[in-house]
Amino acid sequence: MSIVNTVSRFVFPLLVLLGTTVSAHVAATNVIAPNRSVKLEDWCRRLVVRLPGITNPMCRLSELVPTGVNSLQGFPLLASKANRVNANGVDLNRNFPTPNWQQDAPRYWAKKTKSDPRRFPGHAPLSEPESRWVHDEMVRFRPDVIISVHAPFGVLDFDGPAQPPRRFGRLLLNRVGVYPGSLGNYSGVHKNVPVITIELPNAQKMPSEAEVKRIWLDMLGWIRDNVEPQSETAKMHAVSLPNSGPSKK
């Protein structure tokens, strides 16, 4: 099996990067618009066709801005770095349906974070369209490993089975903890699908090209040596959620 086939089979490409940034590549050509609002309208029109469940109004509310870097096709890499939460004020990386979410997530938010609005888990698991989309893609794609990109701790985090990687490039393994509703808790601990979180040092600046290559090659080597494809019977299944909908704000 070639290394490219290995990556395409093992790695679940998160288009929504939970934590600090939202970015996406789209195969499109540059379009010069007279102002930012017109540009955002055009960007959103091209993005929503690739992101099921995301509408044009939701995209416009995200206030995406170009990072200064373009994809190979010339489309700008977009980011929304001002907030950890989505437009509803929910921390998406606390909104996944981990066991006992209804008790643990609100309690942790109130007691451990002192009701920090940047860590609000929502009123119910998967209450947000972004987290529902990621969850549904996991069920559909049935990944063997998930690579998630965050910032700005500058470390390598790991949740779940398999031998954890020691380092990717300059990023050294330093587990940051398991939290109610987090992707690492839900997939790595609850579903037994390993989650590697690449915590970049800076959400505003990508690592150098050489460092990106080192991280990539280290990641491919770790996947090749440590991740086994799951049998069909061990693949992920949808989570049964309570019949009641999310509480009203």
Structure overview:
The protein is of the alpha/beta class and 249 residues long. It folds into 2 domains: 3-17 and 85-227, Aminopeptidase (3-Layer(aba) Sandwich); 38-79, no CATH class. 31% of the residues lie in helices and 13% in strands. The strands form 3 sheets. Strands 1-4-8-5 form a 4-stranded mixed sheet. The longest helix is centred in the C-terminal third of the chain and has 18 residues, at 209-226. The N and C termini lie far apart (51 Å). The model is unreliable at 1-34 and 232-249 (pLDDT under 50).
Short description:
The chain folds into 2 domains: 3-17 and 85-227, 3-Layer(aba) Sandwich (Aminopeptidase); 38-79, no CATH class. Helix content is 31%, strand content 13%.
SSE map:
Elements: H1 3-10, E1 11-13, H2 36-47, H3 56-61, E2 65-70, E3 76-79, H4 101-111, H5 129-141, E4 145-150, E5 156-159, E6 167-168, E7 171-172, H6 183-190, E8 195-199, H7 209-226
Parallel strand pairs: 1-4, 4-8
Antiparallel strand pairs: 2-3, 5-8, 6-7
